[in-house]
Amino acid sequence: MKIGIGVFPGSNCDRDAMYAFKCHGAEGIDYIHYGVETLSEYDMIILPGGFSFGDYLRTGAIAVHSELFSALPSFIAGGGLVLGVCNGFQMLVESGLLPGFLLRNREHRFISKQIHLRVEDTDTPFTYKYSKGDVLRMPIAHTTGNYQPAGTSEKDIRVIFRYCDEDGNATGEANPNGSHDNIAAVSDPKGRVLGMMPHFERVCDPILGESGIPLIKGILEGGGNGNS
Q: Does residue 201 have an active-site annotation?
């Protein structure tokens, strides 16, 4: 598994992603500059959290015009995996690679806290090591994480994680940002492009938390071979 972590001006979770994967044995993993024009040597691209290009105009609005993004459609068509976290998720919906859009949080404030997630779909290369209904604890840190379908039929949205309480109930009180139907992560129809607001890479060891470990190990142990 050859993994590239995209680096944009303003990225600040690229090193977190590198740490998380190296902690679990990743060897073929590099940082890649947003100006790269081909991704053919990689099996998966990670779009990290942060504030790409200062989030000017809108979150992710400038990053999606980079050379790296121009190379993503053919990379995905060739079977490549893409994982966008927080700002990376914002880029994916801004580019149209994932459906819907992200609004400012319901309270119009930056939120940085631990939340609970319920696993909704395990038939993807990212989530097959979880069990459907598992309740995970992960941190969020965003101002623009309020996911809305944008006219897309709900049956056409593949929901991967939902915000929930510690007992797995997807209630309004458990929804930190106003996201439609408590949606915290979605994928493309084939399950090979995943966008998520919570930071799995910050819960990858016994000290910080372990909820992100199955996702990381799943990718490294065969995610790229196709489990969807």
A: yes
> pTM to 2 decimals?
0.94
Task: Tell me, yes or no, if 199 is annotated catalytic.
Answer: yes
Tokens, residue 62? 């400038």
**Is 86 part of the annotated catalytic residue set?**
yes
Angle, CA of 214, 142 and 177, to the nearest 5°: 90
Q: Considering the candidates 13, 94, 164, 201, report the single residue annotated as catalytic.
A: 201
Directed axis angle between helix 14-23 and helix 213-220, to 10°? 70
pLDDT digits (tens, 9 = 90+) for 183-217: 999 999 999 999 999 999 999 999 999 999 999 99
pLDDT in tens, 177-188: 999 999 999 999
The catalytic position among 13, 86, 164, 204 is 86
All domains of the chain in start order, with CATH = 3-225 (3.40.50.880)
